[in-house]
Prior knowledge:
A: Ubiquitin-like (UB roll), 5-stranded mixed beta sheet, 1 helix, globular, B: alpha+beta, Aldehyde Ferredoxin Oxidoreductase Protein, subunit A, domain 2, Aldehyde Ferredoxin Oxidoreductase Protein, subunit A, domain 3, 6-stranded mixed beta sheet, 16 strands, binds iron/sulfur cluster
Amino acid sequence: MTVGVRIFGGLQRFTRGVAELTLDMNPGATAWDVVIRLGIPDNEVWFAAVGGVRVPREHLLKDHDRVDIFAPVGGG
Amino acid sequence: MEFGFQNRILRVNLSTGDIAVESPGAAFFRKYVGGRALVSYYLYNELAPGVDPLGPENKLIFAGGVLTGTPFIGGGRNSVGAKSPLTGAYGDSESGGYFGAELRRAGYDALIIEGQSSKPVYISIIDDKVEIKDASHLWGKLTGDVQKAIQAENEQPRMRVAQIGVAGENLVKYACITNDLAHFYGRSGMGAVMGSKRLRAVAVKGSRPPKIAQPEKLQEINKFMAENWPVMAASLHEHGTTAIVMALNAAGGLPTRNFQEGFFAGAENISAQRLKETILQGGEGCFACPIRCKRVVKSAGEVDIDPIYGGPEYETLAALGSNCGVDDLLMVSKGNELCNSMGLDTISTGVSISFAMECFEKGYLSAEEIGYDLPFGDGPGMVRMIGQIARREGFGAVLAEGARAASHKLGEATYDLAMEVKGQEIPMHEPRLKAALGVGYAVSPTGADHCHNLHDTAYAQEGAGLDSMRPLGMTGPLPADELSTAKARMLVATTTWRYFANCAEFCQFVPWTPTQLVEAVGAATGWNFSMLELSDVARRAMTLPRLFNLREGLTAKDDYLKPRFFEKLTEGPLAGVALDREAFDRTQADYYEIMGWDKEGRPLPGTLKALGLEWTLE
Ligand code: SF4
């Protein structure tokens, strides 16, 4: 299955500046599998969201899901 | 004293026209180092209890810190303080930009403005030449026109100008002070205090920067940041603070429709990405900072937006956007431009309008009273109301008093809809996502504030940020929604650090660590400065405003959080989440104890003695 991925908040330094990409994932892949596949260190990620909404790490992905990956945020 | 400070405090009395300079000496500056510590020292010492915030007895203090105007990266920061007309309590606000650095480079660590002029004036400072000048021709004008006029008539095209807008002239309770047109001392209603003194602007040009004790050492510390910010602050550079709209929404903590919800379906439309694709012109920055995180937007045609006023920060995108249910970026940016050119704090403005919107939708406020329908999501209505607030026209005059005062006018049923603490409107961070931030809102001496506060989400996992805080007592990560003794300790540690930033004066967005700051202050002054001294400076600046407020009659009862946050969110990822009242109260009690305060929130004599504040016991 293919999922769209967007990378936010400085995490693009782990993806050579790429902010948006499409990934082929195996059936049964979870939201956190995307983080692992991209090689972003665990403690750099705040959470992953699917369809713009925070999901648990083990959330199962579906074909054509859009996964957003966020770094922890402080103030603003 | 030779290094770090000018040892010169400028006093200008607008009632008498007296201008004087005083030199408090090295021992004073070592204890207070500037900014908030200096402001709270003078306000506590020199204001009699109960003075009218908008009367001649109130004093308005501009204060840099030991790092303001030095080459230290992020050293453009500085403070303004006075008794707040919005809260009746201690008031203070920080800004970046260039004005504060210029004031220090003109030879002054602080400027204390006293009295009240009988006609509009501005203060012009060119090194030793300090003059009170007529400003009758500037009154009523937009900030952009005023800055141009002042620079032209002083023949100083690079003169830095801090000024109020029309809102400050009209004593709107949350009027801000702007500097360099696009940087703001937003909070606490400092613009109304300046307006009450009929002081339209302070303009400054300086040519004698503070001397640095060990310039090579400071350069070496700077080198670390110069090399590392492109990675450490990449997102800030690219998107500014606007970057966090999407993250907070996905987490369920984007204030929506007057904090009724934490999830906004239209978030994507007011996001950093959308801004970049549409009206963003580029980035701007502050004195001595390569990060340039400030946004500049421009639009012409359907809606005109003048880029001289910068662009919306995260706080503004949320306050005028999601919090008002508005997902139209052009309307939000227009609202931002109006606030900026007329001198309104965008947070308080947004939350006052969202209060009116909720009252309208719930039937506590009619279209007749407002003059038109004002439901959530009405972008043009929001923009129209901003102009009315600044000019105190129609229902705008009611909202110009702030959400708390407006609710008192509309009746008891609306009290809980006014999202404020101590009268100051709540900034765009949701306590049901960041639990101890809610405690921080409650105990803040200036009313709800997000700058001297803990953002729980930043320390929910191991990382460099958390590690850097260990010397100030942070022991390990804690879940963002936890309320506990350990969380109270974390709140004290981060607020200590953030108060220090507002005393030494450097930008909190530049990812400096406490250890680096100890070194930087040492390099600037030549003192053998330590982490304990850093902490004590900050604690003094946390304690004096508390004493100020107690003297004004505030009590522990004023450290509250509105009932809404103890009710469950119903939409988005945090649906079903509410703050636990008992855990909240316990954590607040822990905060008092860790700060060395009694159950009523009064600093204990031993606390004051430990901080060298025993003189306040007299
Ligand atoms: S990080 Fe942004 S706000 Fe801070 S000093 Fe730099 S440009 Fe100014």
